[in-house]
Specification:
5-stranded mixed beta sheet; 18 strands; flat; cytoplasm; MreB_MamK-like; MreB; Actin, Chain A, domain 4; Nucleotidyltransferase, domain 5; binds magnesium ion; 11 helices; alpha+beta; ATP binding; cell shape; binds adenosine-5'-triphosphate
Length: 342
């Protein structure tokens, strides 16, 4: 134990493409979009998180909104560091501190990340005074957050559909046996919706509107038992240039998202096909667990269940499963040594 260990502040962080969550003292103290707004005249960050997200698509030439993470990894090093710093400094309990405290951090990363990308995450954390930084793979953190005992000699499958990546992993004995990470997730669903609106309704909409459509009437199948009402969408008519509105149903969005969901299904089938037989036997009973914001897509559980003939469960509060798991690991690092990335 180092001299200043008693002063070390412990935090668990899910640094996501869409959302960053931080647990401090057993509580979720940050749950914010991973966005910063920068004044490009002087490079200063003027807003972070929710405040910056409200500026998206509405900025003038001097202000730029940036999402520092892309496809689950850091794309803008400087912006991500400033964002992490801002989030940590604004944790209410730490706000009164004059200096940034030394941190012991557990941070999760996508399972398909390269060595260089992994180092970028670690360095970003070290620069915000992370003295001890431990990394954990997202699907492993999700499994722990869901409440599965990952140390048992028993297979479990996690499908974590975030903003940038979908992570599929078969987990047993505290390790990932086989996995697949693909860059088809929430952001691609949003672009699918933009493209669909342009090509089927001649309507040009912004990212924020496409995101609302996805949440309000997003679906993975065309026959839902609990169908949402159609929504009215406003944007610019591509032919006349005038503002216009159209009604959109969940069935249309299911068609718009179909190809992307098919690619997730394909990756899932490949992962299952390379799963060792003893674990496949376990999975036949345990089924699949869905986490991440994509798990909330209507009918996705049913669609994946039909495709795989396995039971599919949606994690309770799927957007927070990963950070909850990361927080559990932080509380007992010695127990979870084997799940941390060396
Ligand atoms: N009700 C919903 N229906 C469909 N998608 C949703 C819903 N709620 C949130 N999402 C989507 O989930 C995504 C965010 O999920 P999540 O917070 O798990 O991602 P992330 O962890 O930031 O990303 P990643 O793990 O890929 O780095 C966004 O694309 C968001 O649009
Ligand atoms: Mg995530």
């Amino acid at each position: 134990m180092g001299l200043f260990d008693f002063m070390m502040v412990e935090i668990a962080m899910d640094l996501g493409t869409a959302n960053t969550l931080i647990i401090y003292n057993g509580k979720i103290v940050v749950d914010s979009p991973s966005i910063v707004a920068r004044d490009i005249r002087n490079g200063k960050i003027i807003a972070v998180g929710k405040e910056a997200s409200l500026m998206q698509g509405k900025t003038h030439e001097n202000i730029k909104t940036i999402r520092p993470l892309k496809d689950g990894v850091i794309a803008d090093f400087d912006a991500s560091e400033k964002m992490i710093n801002w989030f940590i400094k604004n944790i209410p309990e730490l706000k009164r501190n004059f200096f940034t405290p030394a941190l012991r951090m557990v941070v999760c990363i996508p399972s398909g990340i390269t060595e260089v990308e992994m180092r970028a995450v670690k360095e970003s954390c070290e620069r915000v005074n992370g003295k001890e930084v431990f990394l954990i793979h997202e699907p492993m953190a999700a499994a722990i957050g869901i409440g599965l005992d990952v140390m048992l000699p028993k297979g479990n499958v996690i499908v974590d559909i975030g903003g940038g990546t979908t992570e599929i992993a078969v987990i047993a004995l505290g390790g990932i046996i086989c996995d697949s990470s693909l860059k088809i997730a929430g952001d691609v669903f949003t672009s699918d919706i933009l493209y669909y609106m342009r090509t089927h309704h001649n309507l040009y909409i912004g990212d924020a509107t496409a995101e609302i459509i996805k949440i309000d009437v997003g679906a993975a199948i065309e026959e839902l038992e609990d169908a949402p009402d159609d929504i009215t969408v406003r944007g610019r008519d591509l032919l006349t240039g005038k503002p216009k509105e159209v009604k959109v149903s969940y069935r249309e969005i299911a068609r718009a998202l179909d190809k992307s969901i098919q690619r997730i299904e394909d990756a899932l089938m490949v992962t299952l096909s390379i799963t060792p037989p003893e674990l496949a036997a376990d999975i036949y009973n345990t089924g699949l667990y869905l986490a991440g914001g994509g798990a909330l897509l209507r009918g996705l559980d049913k669609r994946l269940s039909q495709k795989t003939d396995l039971p599919v469960f949606i994690a309770e509060d799927p957007l927070r499963a990963v950070v909850r798991g990361t927080g559990i690991v932080l509380k007992d690092i010695s127990k979870y040594q084997s799940v941390l990335i060396k």
